[in-house]
Structures are given as structure tokens and as C-alpha cells.
Write a structure and sequence with these properties.
By secondary structure, the protein is α/β, with parallel strands linked by helices. 35% of the residues lie in helices and 21% in strands. β1 (50-51) and β2 (58-59) form a beta hairpin. The relative contact order is 0.16.
């Protein structure tokens, strides 16, 4: 038989209470059960834990060392339980760049009203699964193919692609741009978690690219005029930056926005989250109304909402 938590819990209770009788009262069991648990622990470890020759039990030398480790083990178990309890009190949504863009705050407000006991928490993780595979998130916002059989995915809406250019660039003076316009410049691409790849351009485009890692590096490069970028419209909404202008790319394919979760461990209230997010995307204005040029950073917020590059 192996050492069990009940053995360690009983040992600590006896040491803290001073007697088997008082320990039994603390644990809510009989004195006989306390004696059996201590005897079992001593048999498993092959040494005496307690000296019973006095009115109050005392620790033996080995017992004093064991009880110190027992306390640490019980503290770690208590921490695991607190983590589990906290996870049931919140639904963690991972994202790589900008969560759900303009829909993020609306979703949080609607969620808080409908599910006040479960917080909806958005967490940033610049990884292909937006924190899902690393255990950071319960659900992830995904805007690129997720070829991993461990996860299930469901579409919640679509987003347009936006160019991100230096405000001094001639493209910033246009209402919209095309893929060929961007191909004349170096294109900053986040290959790890972005939505942009050279495959979006024709093979004869002779595209020059520069690899970036994360939204801050991506935006800094663009603001300095060293590159241009293309991203989900959500990035334009949630990541304004001085010196960066966002313009819709009229001939780029739309982005399918999806939620992903562990196939064998779907989170609680997943159906409610899917329904709410789909409703928000369904109420987005038609494309014709969204081709007004987004404001540059420092002015009004750009249209759109989401994560991606």
C-alpha cells in the first residue's frame, strides 16, 4: 500500500492537536480511525512517526522530517484545488492579437449579464493555438487553419483583411488598397500565429517578406516605414498605433473566425459562448458600409475587430 493523503492529513492533525482524541474531533472521525491511519503510515514508511509514551504525543526524529514534507504536500494539494475552483468560476478565452476586435467588449458585457457567476477572461498568447495547447486558455480564437486532431473548432463569423501602413506612405491616403499595392513593399509577416502568408499573392508577385513575432514588433516595424502588413480587421480595431494607418484590402480573401477547444474536454457554457459570438458577428454592418477609411492611430478607432496579422 502507498502513502495516501488521508495518512498525511491525519499525521498533521495529530501533531497540531496534540492528542489522538483532539485530532479525531478536528477530522470528524473516531479516535480508532486516527490510530489506524497513523499505524498504517508507520507500517508503509517502516518507522515510528509518534512517541505515544507521554500524555501528549510527540514526534520522533523521522516523524519531524516526515511531517514537514507532509505539510508541503497538503499545501500543494490545496493549491491545486483552488486552481480547479477558480477555473470553474471563469471561462478563459485565448487570442493571439486582438481577441474579437470591436465585439470583445460587447461580448464581455452581455456575458456578465447572462452568466454573472462565471467570468469571461481574455488572455493573450502569441502561439498557433492562442494558448489552448499550453493550458492557458479553455477556448481559443483562431483565424488560421488548425490542423490538430486534439481540438474541435466551430466558425463564429467572418472578417475582412486590412492593410497596415506607415501614415506617411502614399497608401495611407487611399480609402482601400489591393494585394498588388502591398507587393511593392516589404511585407511583415508573423509566421507563427498570423493570418497572412505569401500564398495570398500570385506566384509571380516576387514578394519580399520580413518575419516578425507578435503584434508589438509587427506594429513597430510598420510605423517606422520599414514594412507594410496585412491583418484581420479586428487588429485595426483593437491595436491603434501612432504612425500606423489601416485600410481595407478589397481583393484579399475573407478570414473565417473560429473558436477552438479540446475535443475531449469541452469547457462549460461552450454552447452559450458560441451562440453569443455568432450573434455579434451576424449583426456586423454590410461590407459597403465598412469601406470608409479607418482613422489612423491617435484619431478615432479603426473599424473591425479580432486577432491576426
Amino acid at each position: 500500500m502507498d502513502v495516501q493523503l488521508r495518512h498525511l492529513r491525519t499525521l498533521v492533525a495529530v501533531v497540531d492537536a496534540g492528542t489522538f482524541t483532539d485530532a479525531a474531533a478536528v477530522l470528524g472521525c473516531s479516535q480508532a480511525a486516527v490510530s489506524r491511519s497513523i499505524a498504517a503510515l508507520e507500517t508503509i514508511l517502516g518507522t515510528r512517526m509518534l512517541d505515544r509514551s507521554t500524555h501528549h504525543v510527540l514526534l520522533t526524529g523521522p516523524g519531524s522530517r516526515v511531517v514537514a514534507h507532509a505539510r508541503r504536500i497538503l499545501d500543494e494539494v490545496a493549491l491545486l484545488r483552488r486552481i480547479a475552483d477558480e477555473s470553474r468560476a471563469e471561462l478563459r478565452v485565448g487570442y493571439a492579437y486582438a481577441a474579437l476586435g470591436k465585439h470583445t467588449r460587447r461580448l464581455q458585457k452581455a456575458w456578465a449579464a447572462a452568466h454573472p457567476r462565471v467570468s469571461l477572461v481574455f488572455l493573450h498568447s502569441n502561439s498557433p493555438t492562442a494558448g489552448l495547447s499550453g493550458g492557458i486558455a479553455d477556448v481559443a480564437v483562431i483565424r488560421r487553419p488548425l490542423e490538430d486532431d486534439r481540438f474541435d473548432v466551430a466558425s463564429i463569423g467572418i472578417e475582412y483583411r486590412y492593410a497596415a501602413v506607415d501614415t506617411d506612405n502614399a497608401l495611407a491616403r487611399r480609402r482601400s488598397v489591393r494585394l498588388a499595392d502591398l507587393a511593392r513593399y516589404t511585407v511583415a509577416i508573423d509566421y507563427r500565429s498570423g493570418t497572412t502568408s505569401p500564398d495570398l499573392w500570385p506566384p509571380d508577385a516576387q514578394l519580399t517578406t520580413r518575419n516578425t513575432d507578435g503584434v508589438d514588433e509587427w506594429l513597430t516595424l510598420i510605423a517606422s516605414g520599414q514594412a507594410v502588413g496585412m491583418t484581420a480587421e479586428a487588429t485595426a480595431n483593437q491595436n491603434p498605433r501612432p504612425g500606423v494607418a489601416y485600410r481595407v484590402v478589397t481583393d484579399a480573401p475573407l478570414i473565417d473566425v473560429r473558436l477552438a477547444w479540446w475535443k475531449d474536454d469541452p469547457p462549460p457554457l461552450l454552447d452559450a459562448l458560441l451562440e453569443m459570438t455568432r450573434q455579434l458577428y451576424a449583426t456586423a454592418p454590410p461590407r459597403a458600409q465598412r469601406h470608409r477609411p479607418p482613422a489612423t492611430a491617435g484619431a478615432a478607432a479603426a473599424p473591425g475587430g479580432g486577432t491576426g496579422r
